[in-house]
Write a structure and sequence with these properties.
Number of helices of chain B: 6
Number of helices of chain A: 11
Strand content of chain B: under 5%
Largest sheet of chain B: none
Strand content of chain A: 25-35%
Mean pLDDT of chain B: 89
Shape of chain B: elongated
Largest interface: A-B, 15 and 20 residues
Structural class of chain B: mainly alpha
Largest sheet of chain A: 8 strands, mixed
Low-confidence stretches of chain B: none
Order of helices and strands of chain B: HHHHHH
Radius of gyration of chain B: 21 Å
Distance between the termini of chain A: 27 Å
Radius of gyration of chain A: 21 Å
Number of strands of chain A: 19
Structural class of chain A: alpha/beta
Shape of chain A: globular
Number of strands of chain B: 0
Helix content of chain A: 25-40%
Low-confidence stretches of chain A: 1-6
Oligomer: heterodimer
């Protein structure tokens, strides 16, 4: 069981959880979820729906089944089973009865709902030549709850800020579920608003939010706090977006999530050449593993990033393992 | 004598008004069918160019005008908002059935309009657009038929009203 801590959740947070997440889930499952004690419900990281399998919840203490009384448990008695129709209904609610508006996202296997929460989809894929056209007969959904952790970047900021006007090109490296995007978002907010303790004034930040996770825009307006000097290009592909942002909004820093695809490098070079700094993230366990990815290796070898921040979930999501100087690969900080 | 004249005047006026009302109804149906086609066209733009979700697109449509056929769109949004378990098609059918009595549309029109809801929201943009075009084409045919009917009946009802009134007056005088 999750540790029963005396968290006091503010009403606003509970309300937005209800509005953004619970309302998107079909009524029978929603009723069960509502029976889960609030302290446990609010620390949920993932809600997993699989056809004809028990409803599961993942939090920092591990993954649990949910039984019909809304208790998190690891034994298999009296569990709540999810049916495929319930999953289909949930998907209908998530897409607000408008599958057509989300078809590109469904093709990629996930869609982002209001609040920046990501919903992963699996099922039977319909192909059109080599590309995925649709996912039908959806058999599983994974609702990943994104969380704003204000101030989580305070420890790393001093390593990425040079003086009151500049930041380093930074790459955050971490496996999934370790708080990459959360850290990136807080860094964005800090750089954009300025950091009083360090005499850092605040820079113009352009966020290319391909998956609508950083700023969590709803109808184009950021729902998360990403800073006063921040412009957000929502749902735009990174490569096109970086160039657009560069030309249109004269940013000092460009922030984007999960680089490492073919073609990202060219766009990055264009940004670097314009003298604009980049802060981004990449999937990987550490630097040496990251090097095994061809596209990222050339970025590392050409010393394009000046700082690498490696995260893990060793002591909970967002544990900073090490911070590395990208120019000479020396270790600036090592978590014990 | 005066009483007779006043009475026959009242009969004449009311019967002509009755005829006028019927002829108005004949011309109302084609104009409503035309308006509906226009709204569907707006809906097509909303989803193909703006990629708006159903509720937003529909709200935009009834923002212009919420009388007559636009009530279908408002009713759908209301139904979707109040009942989480309802699908878009069901909400549309419900809204049409509730509001069609306030319009001049007939049961044939109703069938076409309800069948538009069957695919509503549940396919990709191409599918949606095909569905919209199909419905618009069908409505256009209905509009032509309604227009022919109107041309035939509009004048007839009006004349019938006036002449009927005169006939009553002659019989009773």
């Amino acid at each position: 069981m999750a540790a029963k801590e005396d968290f006091v959740f503010n009403v606003e947070k509970v309300q937005s959880f209800e509005k953004d997440i619970l309302r998107m889930i079909c009524p029978p499952i929603r009723d069960v979820l509502k029976r889960i004690p609030l302290t446990e419900l609010m620390t949920t990281e993932e809600i997993r729906l699989r056809a004809n399998k028990p409803l599961m919840i993942q939090n920092d203490a591990g993954s649990f089944f949910v039984n019909s009384d809304g208790r998190l448990t690891t034994n298999r008695i009296n569990l709540f089973y999810v049916s495929q129709e319930q999953i289909a209904k949930t998907l209908e609610l998530i897409s607000e009865n408008s599958i057509y508006a989300f078809q590109d996202e469904i093709r990629n296997g996930f869609l982002t709902i209001r609040g920046g929460h990501r919903v992963g989809i699996v099922g039977r894929v319909v192909l059109n030549g080599d590309t995925v056209k649709n996912i039908k007969d959806v058999s599983g959904l994974n609702i990943r709850i994104s969380r704003e952790v204000a101030g989580c970047s305070s420890k790393v900021l001093k390593y990425i800020v040079t003086n009151e006007k500049h930041v380093y090109n930074t790459l955050i490296v971490s496996p999934p579920q370790c708080g990459k995007t959360t850290l990136l978002r807080d860094i964005t907010r800090a750089i954009s608003d300025g950091i009083d303790e360090m005499g850092f004034k605040g820079l113009k930040v352009g966020v290319i939010d391909e998956r609508s996770e950083i700023a969590a825009c709803y109808k184009g307006v950021p729902q998360n706090r990403v800073g006063t000097r921040t412009d957000v290009l929502d749902a735009c592909p990174k490569q096109i977006g970086m160039v657009m942002m560069l030309r249109a909004m004269s940013p000092d820093v460009i922030v984007t999530d999960e680089i490492g695809n073919q073609g990202d490098k060219d766009a990055l070079i264009q940004v670097f050449n314009a003298g604009v700094k980049v802060i981004s993230t990449a999937h990987g366990y550490n630097i040496s593993e990251l090097k095994s990815r061809k596209e990222v290796l050339s970025l590392i070898e050409e010393k394009m990033f000046e700082r690498y921040i490696v995260l893990s979930a060793r002591k909970g999501p967002g544990t900073v393992e090490e911070i590395i100087d990208g120019t000479d690969m020396s270790i600036l900080y090592k978590g014990e | 004598m005066l009483l007779k004249i006043v009475g026959s005047l009242i009969v004449l006026i009311s019967s002509s008004l009755l005829g006028y009302m019927y002829s108005r109804r004949c011309s109302k149906r084609p104009s409503e069918l035309r308006a509906l086609q226009g709204y569907l066209q707006i809906f097509e733009n909303e989803i193909s160019f703006m990629s708006n979700v159903l509720k937003d697109a529909f709200s935009k449509i009834y923002m212009y005008d919420d009388s007559g056929v636009a009530a279908f769109f408002k009713g759908t949004v209301d139904a979707l908002e109040s009942d989480a378990g309802i699908s878009a098609g069901e909400a549309w059918a419900k809204a049409v059935k509730e509001n069609i009595k306030n319009t001049a549309l007939n049961s044939e029109d109703e069938e076409i309009i309800i069948s538009f809801g069957k695919m509503l929201g549940s396919s990709d943009v191409d599918g949606q657009i095909k569905n919209i075009r199909l419905t618009i084409n069908q409505l256009k045919l209905q509009e032509q038929k309604a227009e022919e009917l109107r041309a035939k009946n509009e004048a007839m009802y009006r004349n019938l009203g006036i002449l009927g009134g005169l006939a009553i007056i002659i019989i009773l005088f």
